[in-house]
Amino acid sequence: MRFFLRRGAFYLFTAWAAITINFFLPRMMKGDPVSAYLQKNQGKISPEAIDSLRVLFGLDSDAPLWRQYLDYWGLMFSGDLGRSFSKGLAPVADVIAGALPWTVGLVGIATILGFFLGTSLGALIGWRRGSRADVIVPIATFFSTVPYFWMGLIAIALLSSTLGWFPASHAYSKGARPGFTLEFIGDVVQHGALPALTIVLASLGGWVLGMRNMMITVLDEDYVTVAQAKGLSPRRVMVSYAARNAVLPQLSSFALSLGFIVGGTLVMELVFSYPGIGKLLLDATTAKDYPLIQGLFLVITLAVLVANILADVAYAALDPRTRQTEA
Amino acid sequence: MTHEPLLTITDFSVVYDVDPPVEAVRDVSLTVRRGEILGLAGESGCGKTTLAYGIQRLLQPPAVITSGSAVFHDASGEDVDLNTLDARQMRAFRWAKASMVFQGAMNALNPVLNIGRQLGDVFSTHRPQMSRAERTEESAGLLDLVGVGRDRLRSYPHELSGGMRQRVMIAMALALKPQLMIMDEPTTALDVLVQREILQQISELRHKLGFSVVFITHDLPLLLEISDRIAVMREGRIVELDTAENIYHHAQHEYTRRLLGSFPSLTGDRGAFVRGSDGTSEQGRVVTAGEAAR
Amino acid sequence: MTTLELKNVTKRYHVRGSGDILALDDVSFTLTSGRTLALVGQSGSGKSTIAKILTQLERATSGEILLDGAPVPRRGRALRRYRQQVRMVFQDPFASLNPYHTVRHHIERPLLLDHVVPREEVEAEVVRLLERVRLEPGSTIDRRPHELSGGQRQRVAIARALASRPGLLVADEPVSMLDVSIRLGVLNLLADLQRESNLGVLYITHDLATARHFSDEIMVLHHGTVVERGLADDVILDPQHPYTRALRDASPDPEKHFSGRGSAARTRS
């Protein structure tokens, strides 16, 4: 219990620090571009929107700093991240909310799939070290070392343009009407399959290699020999004794990659013109859309934090030693 | 102790198939008698652990058993030739007939499973008809038997001291009432006081339950005290096999004598090693266990 | 003549969660040239803490450490001179030697660092040191640690310790990682060196039998306190403290085990 309290406090502090830095950054670079934009578009923006932008970008310098800080937190809690310049002054929170599910859905599922597939495969290959299963290692490594955009383009050229199995880009067909209909979901799955496949392929190698190497290390541990001497079935030795220990180091890398789900998929979203967070960030940067950039940074930071919390919980659940040493 | 055999090993050889191949065990023939403690002495790399693993068919490639047989003379009167067992029969044989105790203070216990689960999975594998409650009760009884106590069922290995972990290993090895227990350096990593307690415990349990022990260690003085017979191994061969007393007093092989000579006697005469209390000494040699007996 | 004196040394470790741990409680003893003192204790008794404090890898929480009557310096050149005088031999000869360097490099370095001999005599000194530890210089000097056996590695470590011509040697379980048949060889070497150079040796061990034979005095450490000390034979053959007696009785002793059952004469080839 103490372990969770301690970790909880740590994460609260980190979240606070991240948000506070987000508050100070624009104040240090001065809000010139934002005020210029406001000047240029006078009359087009509602007064409340201007107010929140002034708070977010430190243009409210007439108020004392603590007042600015409190106002800022007020905005955070009401979910107001300002207005996006490049998206027709739509609320930043809405713009992000529109892109987030696509990224989290597609990349999230693909990353988790890649992890489970790669780890299971690695466990199996490690368990049968020296057997023919070892050929998977160089193949998986190949896919994870080729540049991702190249693999994406080849996949499109091959599976989409030539064979016509999958659509080449976008999250759903142009004419489709978004909604929870079977037809639309099928369309989304079809559009997502190719990018998901490339992500899984690209991430597989790392998981396979990491798990295989850990398995080989763990297989030399005495407790694995003991389990075999006890006459346990090979399956149980592999799963509850070898893999159960070998997977622990994998979890930390998994947490890191979970954090990257939100921010680190720019290339995929470009190659497949997928309407996710990465593409949004690129658009916002080219358009100098500061409110959107700032909002995206905040969301990405919080996502990394959440991923780490999940990994911590998983680690504590799987490794009794963590619970003790931290307590 | 009777002279009735429990395990007969004949011409057993194990080769590590690396380049160049290493003959780890060479033509070892050996009989373990029912109810005895057989000491297997030797230095690191002499093949004593490989032999033990080989009997249990626990060797991993590149180790290959190239020749020999091991026949287990079951209490039921049936002779089991371990060579003829398939993988499933071998798994059923392990632990039920011959269990093992490893250097438990190190990492013979799975760090992420609690003690109860690790004891329990012996039963769930070998006695699938047992209910969960029966398994727990049986495991708790074993922990009581070795003096760890049933309240430790839910403890994890890292929460136990080295001595406790080794007792848990012994409890585990006793689970199926095997006729043979192979102990590989079971007390090496432990403090001498804990070592003595564990040895006493093994000896009491053996009196109570009547199993045989193959005790593997480099610690010859220890073997001399606890074993009925001792086999001395060197470079994969058994160079000498005799009763503990004969090994101590009338060692035949030069290597046995050298090994005996490696251990200074604790309370024996100072003999050739003369060191004045003023800090000067005439000779740098030391009286050893073997010499002290002369 | 070198004398190292520990006076009322106490060492406290702070452990997060479980408060302070008293590793050493008011320990005093003297180590002098030409004498071997054995420090006997089980794991957790504090014997390694003493080694660390003597080599100044750790600082005592309270108490004094005096080398020839002067307090041990805390830093700088003076500390280096202290370390030149008090040398350490570690338990694991593989971990204490750098796998990338040759034997020559290992022994040369302290010679050069401490300017023990003029630069042009370094090579000859390395050879001399190897001979002192009974290693054949020609075949060992250019080897790397992994090409040597455990015993040879430990001899290299001893040669390195001797390079700066120390007055005192702290040997922390110097043979417990070695194969049994070569342990006595290394211990005999230490004993010989001790006589030849009039070294003071602190032999830290858990093994009562070698402690008895290789030291003048034995000090028994238990939970950070010295429970008994005295001449080696007295401590082992006639222990006063119950803990020492328990240790003695728990240690394997075939001599006693077989005594009374007739000890026929045995000849050695």
Word description of this protein:
The complex is a heterotrimer of chains A (327), B (294) and C (269). Chain A has 327 residues and is mainly alpha-helical. Chain A is built from 14 helices and no strands. Chain A has helices at residues 2-29, 32-40, 47-56, 65-77, 92-127, 136-145, 148-162, 182-219, 222-229, 234-263, 266-271, 277-286, 290-318, 320-326. Chain B is an alpha/beta fold and 294 residues long. Chain B has a 6-stranded mixed β-sheet with strand order 6-7-8-3-9-10, with helices on both faces. Chain B has a 4-stranded antiparallel β-sheet with strand order 2-1-4-5, with helices on one face. Chain C is 38% helix and 25% strand. The model of chain C is unreliable at 260-269 (pLDDT under 50). Classes of the chains: A mainly alpha (327), B alpha/beta (294), C alpha/beta (269).
Summarize the model shown:
The complex is a heterotrimer of chains A (327), B (294) and C (269). By secondary structure, chain A is mainly α. Chain A has helices at 2-29, 32-40, 47-56, 65-77, 92-127, 136-145, 148-162, 182-219, 222-229, 234-263, 266-271, 277-286, 290-318, 320-326.
Helix-strand makeup class of chain A: mainly alpha
Largest sheet of chain C: 6 strands, mixed
Mean pLDDT reading of chain C: 86
In terms of quaternary structure, what is this?
A: heterotrimer
Q: Portion of residues in helices of chain C?
A: 25-40%
Distance between the termini of chain C: 42 Å
Rounded mean pLDDT score of chain A:
80
Largest sheet of chain A: none
Helix content of chain A: over 70%
How would you sum up the global shape of chain C? globular
The beta-strand count of chain C equals 10
User: Stretches of chain C where pLDDT falls below 50 for ≥5 residues?
Assistant: 260-269
β-sheet strand percentage of chain A: under 5%
Low-confidence stretches of chain A: none
Radius of gyration of chain C: 20 Å
Chains forming the largest contact = B-C, 49 and 49 residues
Count of runs of 4 or more consecutive helical residues of chain C: 11
